[in-house]
Amino acid sequence: MAQKAAKTQAARNTQTLNRTHSIALGVNVLFLLLKYILRRQRSLTLYLILNAPALLIEFWFERIGRPTFVDGELKRAGEDLESKGLTEWMWDVTYWTWICVGAVSLFGDWAWWLWAIVPLYSVYLAWTTYTGVRGGMGGLMGADNQQAAGGAAGQSKRQAKLEKRGGQKVQYR
């Protein structure tokens, strides 16, 4: 049972990467089939430029996530492809690019405009991260001074009620 977690992660990464390659192959073959066999007018330049991020991300995932074996033994399980943060954002870009390529295959080049959602989503994530960090540092930026002017800064509802009633009273039997 040595390295059970590493073996589980290696199996999960292998399955995820194989599924990713299968979906990417299917989406890209669909685009190329509809472009060349059915002679649909599709911009190959836009396809190459806007599909490149997904292909580069897929290559990167293959490089960091594929487990390596030496003599049948697991040497390295690979990075966790289900982690949060940048990896999660990269998966979002990959999935959205596949959706855009499928939409372009079926509906035409105007569907590339859907890809504009990726930078907008990135700006949204950056803004929410910035405002979250800024809000978390409110005490450093003088927010305590504003609360102190209000009078009851830092009191719970229970403390405010007790103070309003005249404070805590000790009862003797």
Main attributes?
173 residues; mainly alpha; two-stranded antiparallel sheet; 2 strands; SND2/TMEM208; membrane; transmembrane; transmembrane helix
Can you walk me through this structure?
The protein is mostly helical and 173 residues long. It has one domain. It has helices at residues 4-37, 44-65, 86-107, 117-136, 143-150, 157-164, and strands spanning 68-70, 73-76. Strands 1-2 form a two-stranded antiparallel sheet. The mean pLDDT is 83.
**Going across the major beta sheet, what is the strand order?**
1-2
Number of domains: 1
State the helical fraction.
55-70%
| Main β-sheet description | 2 strands, antiparallel
Q: How many runs of DSSP E, i.e. beta strands?
A: 2
* Mean pLDDT over all positions: 83
C-alpha-based Rg, rounded: 27 Å
The shape is flat
How much strand content do the residues show?
A: under 5%
Tally of individual helices: 6
User: How far apart, in Å, are the first and last alpha carbons?
Assistant: 65 Å
Structure classification: mainly alpha
Q: Low-confidence segments, ≥5 residues, pLDDT <50?
A: none
> What sequence of helices (H) and strands (E) makes up the elements?
HHEEHHHH
